[in-house]
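Consider this:
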Amino acid sequence: MNTLSPCCAAYIAGLVDADGTITLTRKHINENRHPVISISNTDRRLLEYVLKNVGAGKITAKRTVSKNHRPSFVFAIYNRQAIDLIRQLQPFLRTYKAARAELILNDCRALTPRNSKYNKEMLLARRCFEERVLAIKPSDQAH
């Protein structure tokens, strides 16, 4: 994972604000959710710029639903690498994603035991954290 210049971090934060997401997701239904940053775009070169500068993550092709749609791609980064990237982007985020970023930075690591062994109290706290993050939606931003 690279350290971004302020200019590059601001640019990538703009991409996240416009065409991306900061959220918690899970790969399997019974798992806890984990942080992810993703950016969707039809210009793969733009996402390659992000990948090169971030130094982590991956680009995948999205399935084209209609023959009228152009092919599109997604840059995504997960878990601790996502948290590290959120830390660098957070000062430059301007949408509701800034509130999600702040909550993830403040609470995610403290609510995730390194061995992934949760007692009932820890699991409840983790579920509440996930609900708080996912409850932050575009309509929540101040005008």
Q: What stands out?
A: The chain has one domain: 6-140. The longest strand covers residues 34-41. The chain has a mean pLDDT of 92.
